[in-house]
Specification:
Number of strands: 2
CATH class: Mainly Alpha
Strand content: 5-15%
Largest sheet: 2 strands, antiparallel
CATH superfamily: Cytochrome c-like domain
Structural class: alpha+beta
Number of helices: 3
CATH architecture: Orthogonal Bundle
Radius of gyration: 13 Å
Bound molecules: protoporphyrin IX containing FE
Distance between the termini: 31 Å
Length: about 80
């Protein structure tokens, strides 16, 4: 079993709306596992809506089966739903 996340096959990357992918990139994650604490930094404060849309469209195309084609406006809406 992998101790760390592997984007290949990740369900979030098969969503053409890229909702979960954008949210985790915006707000990161901290979770306890049997192998210790897993952590992903938040990128929401460091990158623009345009940049985050671009990375979401890249990772869904590169690692998922249903590439997203989201815009900066989609990311702006998703920012309202996540912690800063
Ligand atoms: C631009 C860079 C990054 C992108 C685009 C990205 C993207 C993602 C995505 C889409 C997921 C969800 C995967 C799923 O659905 O299973 C995820 C999970 C995760 N990422 Fe990242 N990630 C990035 C950088 C990082 C970094 C730098 C770290 C660690 C230092 C990291 C650690 C993790 C961990 C531990 C998870 C699993 C979180 C959980 O299951 O709660 N990520 N990442």
């Amino acid at each position: 079993m992998l101790d760390y996340a592997n984007l290949v096959g990740a369900r979030a990357l098969n969503d053409p709306a890229a909702t979960n992918a954008v949210q985790i990139v915006l707000s990161g994650s901290t979770r306890d596992s049997a192998h210790g604490s897993l952590y992903m930094p938040k990128f929401g404060l460091a990158y623009s809506d345009t940049e985050i849309a671009a990375v979401a469209n890249y990772i869904t195309a590169r690692f998922g089966s249903s590439p997203s084609n989201i815009t900066a406006a989609n990311v702006r809406d998703l920012r309202k739903e996540v912690s800063k």
